[in-house]
Amino acid sequence: MIENFNGIIYLAIFIIHFLGFGIYAYQMIINNK
Asked: Which residues are listed as membrane-spanning (predicted)?
């Protein structure tokens, strides 16, 4: 149960980090135009 909960936390952090990087890259592309 604890391992499963820990896995969900790591998955959420990974998704948030990936989205943050994607938004940052997207803004960089928009600003370059």
From this structure: 6-26
